[in-house]
Structure formats: C-alpha cells, structure tokens
Design goal:
- This protein is mainly α and 503 residues long.
- The protein has two domains: 199 residues, no CATH class; 174 residues, no CATH class.
- Helix content is 55%, strand content 4%.
- Strand 2 and strand 3 form a beta hairpin.
- Helix 1 packs antiparallel against helix 13, helix 13 runs antiparallel to helix 17 and helix 17 packs across helix 19.
- The longest helix has 32 residues.
Length: 503
C-alpha cells in the first residue's frame, strides 16, 4: 500500500507562496503620476540619460546591417551593441558627464586590459562574460532606450529577435555620418568588431562622444526636433515643457523645484503648465494616502499585532487627540471649508514629518491636506476633468480628479469625522490587500505589507511614502547635449533665441 509522508506534500500551484517580497507603490496609485508625466514628456524616460544615444544606436544598427550583408558577422548584434556601450563609457570616463551607461563598471576598473594597456571589450561586454557591465542581453539599449526609439519610429524588433531600423532611423544614421568623418567612424566600428580599444584611440573617437553633437548639423537638427517640435500626434506638451523648463532656469529656479514652481505659477493658457499643476496635485494626494498607510503599518507594529478593531480604534483616538480645534461630530463638508493651508507649504512640512518618522502628526496633516485638495478640485473641477479625459488618464487608479472625488473625500462629505476616519482607514487597508494580491501574478511572490489572520493583523514590512521622478533631469541632460544649456547650467544663446521666438 502506498504511504504518504508530510514532508512529501507540496502546495498546489495556485496555493504556493514564494515568500514576501518588497515592491514599490503598495497602494497601486503611483502609476497615475507616471502616466501623467508620460503624457507631458513622451519619448524619454528617467533612464534615457543622453539624446545622442538615439542617433548613435541608429548608426550602429545601420553599420551592422551593412557589414552583415557583405560578410555575415561573427559578432552577434547584441554583443556589437554591448561593446559600443562599454566603449562609450570608457570614452566618457572622467569627462564629468552624468548618466552614461556602464560608468560604475569603468570607474571600478573592471574593464579587462591587454599587455599593451589596450581595453579588451569582450571580457566586460559580451553575453556570457563572467564580469560584465550589464546583465540584460540587449544592454541598456534594450532595457532603457528601445521604448523611446520605438516611440519615435526609429527602430523595430522582429520575430528573429533582431533589431532593425525604420526609415526614420536610417535617416538619423545618415545624419551621424554627416557629422563624423569616415575614418573615425570606420576605426570605431573595427574597434567594436575586434573588441580592442587602444588608449591612443580615445582622443580620435572624440567626435562620437555623447556631448559632441555639432550645433547646426543634420544630426543636431533631427534630435532637436524631437524636443521642440510637436509630437506626431500633434501634442505640444513636450515642446511646451521644454519652453517652461528653459524659462525657469533663466529665472533661477532650481531644477528640483521645477514641478513645485509650475504648480504655484500655473498658466491655464499653456496646456503643459496646467499639466504639471495637475501632476503635482496627484503627487500630493498620493503622498497623503501613503502617509496614512505608514501610520497603519507603524501601529500594527506598536500594538504587537492587534485585532483590526483595536488597531482602527487606537488610530482614530490618537488622531482625535490631535484635532483639538475639530469636533468629531462635525461633517467633512464643514471641516474642509475650514482648512486654510498652502498646498505646497503643507506638502513640504509633511515630507519633513515623514523624514522624522512622525506618522501620527503626518497623518493629521495629511487628512487636512486631503480636504484642502478637494477644495482645489472644486475650484478647478472642469479643467481637471477635461485634462484627465483629453489625455485618457481617467481610467488610471489614483488619478487626481476621479480619486479625490470618488475615493478619498467627495463621496464622504456628509460623514462626520469619526465615520470618515473609519471608512478611510478601512479602505486604505483593503486597497493595499487588493493591489498586493492582484500584483501576485504568476510568480506567487507575496507583496502584502501586512496580513490579517485569526482575527489579528501582522506586520510584514514597513513602507514609507515616496514621490515619482518626472523625467525633468533627463530633459535637462538632453538640453545640455544639444547645447541649449551650458556645462555651467546657464542658458546659451540657442536657448535664449528659442524663448524669444517661441510661439
């Protein structure tokens, strides 16, 4: 007779658990911010650090195809691209230029050297090398830049797992040939094929470096048009954002304050100006909700895995004690009209409280700020709803107008403070559980930050509010590469002329 032992029992596949894992956006609301800045700045990402990669990748693919037609290449297309990326990191080393692919690998002296001091690229670049600058087979090209190159209709990926140029990509490859002399181009290609980069060649290859785009060249004009011309769908949001950023730099606004400055100086006559105002509202609302979630997690830990009812009761009582000027029986409609907060100032204070890990004070401020946000929504409801609808943002979880109205404030205006806190805290907990389970997917990794079992709540992982990064640094880098902004971070005559003739 067959015998079954406990240690032979395995979970059925749908009940297995690969353990708890970390993950961003535990409430599933930040993608609405990402979708918003993707509308405002299409064609670049937070990881596309230099616009010349766009043209150089096109030229490389074209060169590879040309050579492959003459004599099938022994170097795989992916390795050809990977060697280029590592070689470029070597060329740019010590130039003070940020966001270059492979910089850390080169800085840490990981590139193999031959006896004559030459760099041996295959050891650090080729797929299968023991110590390599990039793990993904297609390099940073496939991981960071491909999406943008596809967006601009420069490159396509076919079923044979090979990359091909589209007509616009071939034209951009031709632009590179117009910018860089033939000998330099040919020597560089041979360097990639042989895998050997000599120290003395670094200066020779300077015309191909990321910061050496020739102003006025056909390459420069094509790349410049990506930023300052309307998109193929006739959207002007990226062009307007470029204009606004240059204006702010001209006025001395720090780069990291761009979005905040745009919020405080919104111009409804410029679509992108209103778009950044809208994005900021999304970010503030998300941060408020995530602050309250952090308080919930913190209290689960402080109360040593309490029952849900005890957890909610203690949080409510702690909040009530802080609302000394509010009556718990007052309804939200009356309370929201009494909130006098400057949104950006309050947001700055909230971030300071979170930095101090003061989740209770942070949550009190977050609740007031949510009510203040709803008043902002009431004041600009038509414009906000129109922006969401026109840019197909209305289906995004956590999008500002729909969420502040239907999830967090608007539908609870007749609730008193106590009932509002009951539903808000419960909804945030349920929202996290739903999102974490939905994200489980096929890998069975559990993303829950708390679990509710046997009537008690157990903390799995503490999470903190975070902001998204809206591509402004990448846009700044692009404008530096195109010589609109100097290495001293000041506007050049090109930028001043663009601003003066903008229209």
């Amino acid at each position: 007779m067959a015998q079954y032992k406990i240690d032979n029992i395995t979970d059925v596949y749908w009940a297995s658990n690969e353990g708890f894992k970390s993950g961003r956006d535990p409430l599933g609301i930040q993608n609405s911010s990402v979708a918003t800045y993707s509308v405002l700045l299409p064609g670049l990402t937070n990881l596309t650090g230099h616009i010349r990669y766009y043209s150089l990748y096109c030229w490389l693919l074209d060169e590879y195809d040309r050579l492959d037609k003459l004599t099938p290449q022994k170097v795989h297309q992916y390795n050809f691209i990977r060697r280029f990326e590592l070689a470029m990191a070597i060329l740019m080393n010590g130039k003070g230029v940020r966001a270059v692919v492979g910089t850390d690998f080169v800085d840490n002296n990981n590139v193999a050297r031959l006896k004559d001091g030459s760099y041996f690229l295959p050891d650090g670049a080729d797929i299968g090398s023991e110590k390599r600058y990039w793990s993904l087979k297609t390099g940073a090209f496939g991981q960071y830049y491909l999406g943008s190159l596809i967006f601009y209709r420069l490159v396509k990926f076919e079923q044979d797992r090979r990359f091909y140029l589209r007509d616009r990509g071939k034209a951009l490859a031709s632009d590179v040939r117009d910018s860089v002399d033939e000998k330099t181009r040919n020597d560089f290609v041979q360097c990639l094929l042989s895998g050997v980069l000599q120290e003395k060649q670094i200066q020779e290859f300077k015309p191909l470096m990321l910061d050496q785009i020739i102003v006025g060249s056909s390459e420069w004009n094509t790349l410049k048009d990506f930023l300052v011309n309307p998109d193929y769908n006739e959207s002007s949001l990226r062009r307007e954002t470029t204009f606004l950023l240059l204006k702010d730099i001209e006025s001395g606004v720090p780069l990291n304050d761009f979005v905040k400055h745009r919020f405080n100086n919104v111009n409804k006559n410029i679509n992108a100006s209103f778009g950044w105002y809208f994005y900021y509202l999304c970010e503030v609302m998300h941060y408020c909700i995530e602050t309250i979630f952090s308080l919930i997690l913190s209290e689960i830990d402080n109360l040593n895995n309490p029952p849900v009812s005890t957890l909610l009761h203690n949080i409510k009582q702690s909040i009530f004690l802080k609302f000394t000027d509010w009556d718990s029986s007052d309804n939200i409609l009356a309370l929201k009209d009494s909130v006098e907060l400057d949104i950006s100032d309050a947001f700055d204070k909230l971030k300071i409280l979170i930095k101090k890990r003061d989740y209770l004070e942070g949550s009190v401020l977050a609740i007031k700020l949510l009510l203040r946000l709803y008043r902002e929504y009431e004041k600009n409801k038509d414009d906000i709803d129109r922006f969401e609808d026109n840019n197909y943002l209305f289906k995004q979880r956590g999008i500002f107008g729909k969420s502040i109205e239907k999830d967090y404030v608007g539908c609870y205006l007749d609730y008193n403070l106590e009932n509002y806190l009951n539903v808000l805290l419960s909804d945030i907990m349920n929202q996290h559980t739903f999102v974490a389970i939905r994200k489980t997917g096929n890998n069975n990794a559990d993303l829950r930050k708390f679990i509710n079992e046997d009537g008690r709540v157990y903390l799995i992982e503490m999470r903190y509010p975070s902001e998204t990064t809206p591509r402004i640094n990448s846009l700044f880098n692009f404008l530096q590469d195109l010589k609109y902004i100097g290495r001293d971070n000041q506007l050049t005559d090109l930028a001043k002329n663009f601003i003066e003739n903008y229209g």
